[in-house]
TrEMBL record:
InterPro entries named among the record's database cross-references: RNaseH-like_sf (IPR012337), Transposase_11 (IPR002559)
UniProt GO BP: DNA transposition
Single annotated GO MF: DNA binding
Name used for this protein in its record: Transposase DDE domain protein
Pfam families referenced in this protein's UniProt entry, alphabetically: DDE_Tnp_1
Domain Transposase IS4-like: 7-140
Top-level taxon in the UniProt lineage: Bacteria
Length: 162
């Protein structure tokens, strides 16, 4: 994956990935990243109290420079993003918007994994597993199309009543 990337890519990660060694690996391979972190992820992150701050994170004997962005969700919960992009032309709002664009992907992944149980195969042969996989993907797409169509009908009925 690292070898096939272009310079214009930014990889978005969720909360399970942050770590100084991983940051070092990504930066060492010139991979830009944006990832969510727990508020108390590390001492260095805890010290970054400003809403938008560039800090150095210790990784063994070296230090890695990253940007830490803090903001409150509508629920009042604090969110922390760690970003390799240090340029201030990327505003906090830009970074928040970018991170939350992955939410649709997360919802789809949850549907495939937990509702359609795409990782739970009943067959054992390669061809049968592939058939199960593609049948699940087909079913997922049909469900999405039906959902979109029903949403249109509901919106039209609401417009008629108003």
């Amino acid at each position: 994956m690292i070898k096939d990337r272009t310079d214009a890519e930014l990889i978005l990660f969720d909360r399970g990935y942050p770590g100084a060694k991983f940051f070092s690996f990504l930066k060492g391979n010139n991979v830009d990243f944006l990832m969510r972190a727990k508020v108390n992820f590390s001492k260095d992150i805890k010290k970054a109290k400003k809403p938008d701050q560039i800090i150095d994170i210790k990784n063994g004997k070296e230090f890695l420079t990253v940007r830490v962005v803090r903001f409150l969700l509508p629920s009042g919960i604090e969110e922390v993003l760690i970003i390799s992009l240090l340029d201030e032309k990327y505003t906090v709002e830009d970074l928040k918007e970018l991170y939350f664009k992955k939410w649709g992907v997360e919802v789809k992944y949850d549907e495939l994994k937990n509702r359609l149980e795409i990782e739970n195969f009943t067959e054992r042969t390669k061809i049968a597993i592939e058939q199960e996989f593609y049948a699940s993907m087909y079913l997922s797409n049909m469900i999405e199309l039906a959902k979109q169509e029903s949403n249109k009908i509901v919106k039209e009925k609401i417009k008629i009543k108003i």
